[in-house]
């Protein structure tokens, strides 16, 4: 049997600690090594002791859970625990394993933990070269499912009202984001807006001719206000 995953609870409410601690005690694959009641306390704890899994609340005083994750260079796996569903989409930009809404039922807790265990098992059996670094991908919601896309697979994006179409090397995805929202999530050094309705991956551009760029055999228009920056980025 593998060593249990070392867990840290981070929540400003004592009741949340009580519930999650009780759940952790019932799972052999988990062991609780610490309880923190605000983000700064947790950051200091992580500097002192290695942790495999964080159960992290979002709404906390001084610094919330997502802000705390931004300060960590190499964060452990994270399961978010919160009473606020509005952070769900944003949270997946931080490569969290799961998002649990309070009050948390034990069955739902077990499902989240199982995702961590499966991920750990996969990483132990796959060659490192087959793993996609978290920083080289992002997550979108498609038809109720969360889908991870590698930046290298994304060719271009088309605005579609309050949705966007993402054209990848394998298929097309539609997700409920505006172009501006998606542009903020993609690395600016790899992607560029070429038109009010199109954003492209620089690596996918095969040719620029007049006021068009070519992605394989697909031509996309270049807006007059975007052309100068595009030409400069392609030089």
From TrEMBL:
Pfam families: LytTR, Response_reg. Residues 6-117 form the Response regulatory domain. The modification 4-aspartylphosphate is found at residue 57. The keyword Lipid biosynthesis does not apply. Residues 138-235 form the HTH LytTR-type domain. One of its GO terms (molecular function) is phosphorelay response regulator activity. SUPFAM superfamilies: CheY-like (SSF52172). Gene3D superfamilies: 3.40.50.2300, LytTr DNA-binding domain. The keyword Phosphoprotein applies. Keywords: Phosphoprotein. This is Two component transcriptional regulator, LytTR family. It comes from Spirosoma linguale (strain ATCC 33905 / DSM 74 / LMG 10896 / Claus 1).
